[in-house]
User: Fold these one by one.
Assistant:
Number 1:
Amino acid sequence: MKCQQCDKQAVFHITELETGAVRELHLCEDHARVYLNQTEGGGGSADEAEDAAAAGGAAGQLGVGQTADELAALDQKACDMCGITFFEFRNQGRLGCPHDYVQFAKELEPLIVNIHGATEHTGRRPSRSPTTVETAAASGTAELTGVIGLRREMKDAIACEDYEKAKENRDAIRAIEDRWIPPARPDSQE
Amino acid sequence: MQIMKLDTLAQSIGEWLRGTGPESDIVMSSRVRLARNLPQYPFVSRASEQDRADIERFLRERIAMSSAGPGLESIDVGGLEEIDRQFLVERQLISREHADAQGARSVAIDKLEQVSLMINEEDHLRIQCIHSGLDLRGVWEQIKVVDEQIEQFVPYAFHPRFGYLTACPTNVGTGIRVSVMLHLPALVITRQIDKVFRSLHKISLAVRGLYGEGSQAMGDFYQISNQTTLGKSEEELVEQVGDVVPVLIDYERRAREFLVRETEQNVHDQVSRAYGILRTAQTISAEETMQLLSRVRMGVLLGLIGDVKIADINSLLVRTQPAHLQKLRGIELDTKDRNIERARYLRQHFEAGGQNVN
């Protein structure tokens, strides 16, 4: 079998699970080294960035014009709501919460293009959701994901015995939920 | 209560196994699933035990109050024994991942076993709908209504550009997976199956085994599904899968005709031997059973075996699985005893002309 990036014999057969999708790579020794350096976030040569991107390694795609320091900084980047770092996502292939799509939008975009060949949803929309980017900040999803962060703060406040703060957090959560969660049907509640 | 309920289920079969519907000689079933999440909780893999319990309760109660609720019964998957979870996997009511997961989780199903709502699988909510035969349109129309009914009471995580937000970016956008389960024995026998799969991969369709992700193709049953979920509408994705099915059906039919025309004696011999083993074996594994049932199924459809119904074979495919056998027998059995029980069950079934099963 030939290497997927040149005419040499492929000696490395890699099964990539990182993005949640299984991809098989068949590479020669040289291209395997480049690829592995990139996926480890080690800032390997960006020459093959495009090919590596096609191979599905998230870090490979981010390697374009970025230094090792920048990549390391990116890995440290954490979601304000659920706290997941980009590094954790790269390792698990699963995101932490819906807000990650906002927080890591720039980083996720090349990955999403790679998987789907598109970045714009053209299908159905929930009837309550906004149809334009401009109103996204006001949307239910944007406000409701805030609850994830507030719940974390509340937990911390309780751990520090700061009950005043915990109460504030609780009230803030309730206000958002009351505003965005559709009212329950009273006669069918358990 | 739960176990009683599952034992009652064991006596019946799901609608998708009826062996009816368009093209049901080749298309076993048509399925659509939608991945949905609540914006106010972390995705399942990052949710605490408390979060998972809250998500499960919130969704269960909200689904119950929706118009979809009255027809559904909820099963507490987290509280089930392993054998009962396996039983639900064999019936395709939950995924293997859902069965093996940790923490609070449940599934709501309707009486026909067409609709199943998994709570706390990889996503907070996975809505699944499955019909017998080729009926992707019908499945889509049904699942769309269920999704809308639930949405009246449940906020879904949604992004104006990325669409429905999912735990894995491979599902983002529509969150839809459209699949058909095909029985392709003649393409396997004539060694054309790999070629077919390679061309499917080229048009972004995935091929999997009987039990979905990561499962081996057993007994010549294959699931064909869309690989991308973003950038195309749900209808377009339903069509993408739907468009390729008639082509595959045509290939399989031609391969079957070829087999009968060119090697009838051979095929007749293979099919008859498979039938003979199923009727007389004293111990038999699940894999061998599946393989032989596949051959017999083809034999029936080619008119080489007269006294067996397709619906019976479909039902045997599920009922000879490990958890079903044990449920039907009412006791736990190890592998060796299961193989003996499976052979006994098959012999009894065929001796009675398929009448004893229901």
Number 2:
Amino acid sequence: METGHFFNHKHLTSLADLSVEDFELVLLTARSFKEISSRSIKKVPTLRGRTVINLFFEPSTRTRLSFEIAAKRMSADTFNISASSSSAAKGETLVDTALNLQAMNPDMVIIRHSSSGAANLLKRHLQTSVINAGDGTHEHPSQGLLDMMTVIEHKGDLTGLKIAIIGDIAHSRVAHSDIIGFTRMGATVSVSGPATMVPLEVESLGAKVCLDPRDAVADADVVMALRIQRERLLDPLIPSLREYAAFFGVNESLLRLARPDALIMHPGPINRGVEIDPAIVDGPRSVILDQVTNGVAVRMALLYLLMGGE
Amino acid sequence: MSPAGGNYINQSHGPLFLQNGRVIDPLNNMDRQADVLIVDGRIAQFVEPGGKIETPAGCERIDLAGKWLLPGLIDMHVHLREPGQEYKETIESGARAAAAGGFTAVACMPNTFPVNDSQGVTALIMAKAAGVACRVYPVGSISSGARGEELADFGEMKRAGVVAISDDGLPVSNGQLFRRALEYSANHGLLVISHSEEVSLSRGGAMNEGETSIRLGLPGIPNVAESISVYRDLALAKYTGQPVHIAHVSTVEAVELIRRAKAMGCKVSAETAPHYFTLTESDVGDYNTNAKMNPPLRSEADRQAIIAGLADGTIDVIATDHAPHSRLEKELEFDQAANGIIGLETSLPLTMELVRQGLLSAAGMVELMSVNPARILGVEGGDLGIGRRADLTVVDPQKVFIYREETIVSKSKNSPFIDRELTGKAVLTIMGGVITHREL
């Protein structure tokens, strides 16, 4: 690519492993690949003959499909394994499952798993490239990258931007990757939510913790709401979804504090009326579906760069 | 080296004359060069350097120049996995690992399958322990099946051989049951060892709660899960007037609570493990399951507090919490992996590290690893007086070695210290005059 930077990674488990130059190269590559998806014949021969396995131990529609479409548009052969059809139910360990897959000589294993570090475990045991497609409450690097790409498309540059993320920061792998990626590229990230979900230790990732969401959103260029998971009621992290919506939901009155041209983002799937007002989701500043579109481009770029594209 | 499956029971060994070693025996205020004569498995005579002695016929002389001669080390907290999980460790293999690490005695925790909650299980352990490479003192459970509901039969277990009781691995969450255990233990003179953990604060946790757990996305176990429970145990010990021993102390708060309780005259003793004064949460690194144990590796401030507690006597004992697991339990996703690491073969060198750094004296180390565990458990040991059982550990304080997986004697290899360079090693272990480990 024109950056002249060589992408010296075989795996992607955490955005913390990427340098500024790496981010620039991935995002530039993604931008150039995005056009492929708007062609009438949406296929290039770049990864012809390569084998990509989607190993998903958690239900996922968007991410799995996005990786599959990305691979197919690059002409790679893709295979999907979901938890119900894998050996996990029969008691086979993750490492054994992965070694069996490797024995069939794939070029890439993309893993989604409920345990943090699952992709790191595979990376230690496999020669094959590994992409973390979301592991527990650790990271979701490709989501972080597609979020960065989406903001750059609308704002030109990340340097100096103010990003606000509202929700369960402690347990959000998306938030973790976003905080790492955006701050490394020169943006500031403020996070807010119930204190049970936003411990001060989050600041060690590079974010500023605000008790009041209005402080996080003030003058923000980007406002992102995170999905609230119902099982978090049991911990108990919040009293009720109704109370969450009333005090931490992203709505018009909160957004009045952000910059007038602030982008509205959400990694999906959305609980309309809980973490975000439905009117905001569908409103003019929402780039939520752009995120989904860019997800395909970012994943095409990752497959290309990690499988040794120059 | 000791023979695999060697039978040390009633093994008679000829007299031994251990020459030129530095004898460190704090109980008898001894720390000087001396020769030691062992006859019939007991300490027969000390000879000053250059002194004359008629050694008995057939006496083997061993030169210990440059070595330390200590009362045999005692590890009061190990898991030998037998009965029930012999693929991880057996009493025989664990005893060989102990001897290789310089230990002449261990106390084994009751969380076997079945739990050691009855005289039958205790008797089985005692039978299996006969003739192995170190003395094995079983610990019985506090509650039946370690379920935390009703008391186990302390008296019968004591008669069968237990020296203490504990539900180790699990806390006794019910305060009333723990109180009754302290009270009833008085009838049988049994020490209560507490695994102090408030499970409502630790449940589901996989590592220390803090910046590292946030970064790795792992559910955290906060310090207060330990300290709240330690406080309860100390309060109950004070209220009942009974002694309590706090196992595997890992936090700055627990050290401070124990320090204050001792100042108030509470009959409390405490132990920590070498990993808590050697490693921190950052050693979890890239989800290394050999750095996963309960309580978890803590922060640097906690590590420093543990060292201070060892130095000032707040913590009485270094015990390993030797917890063998096979790859089946460890080569997994971090949150799925079992807690615990082996420790018998690294405990002495890791403690020697504190001695080399001047944080502990050599005599202090002997108190923590021999004198105090013997006293707290009420067993013979930690004493090189004339006529005492010749349980001895000889340490080469200068010996540098790399702890390699293939040299581990324990059946399991789950150690975060593999490939680490260590200094100071047990080169001769003697139990009742019988050599159980020798590399000189």
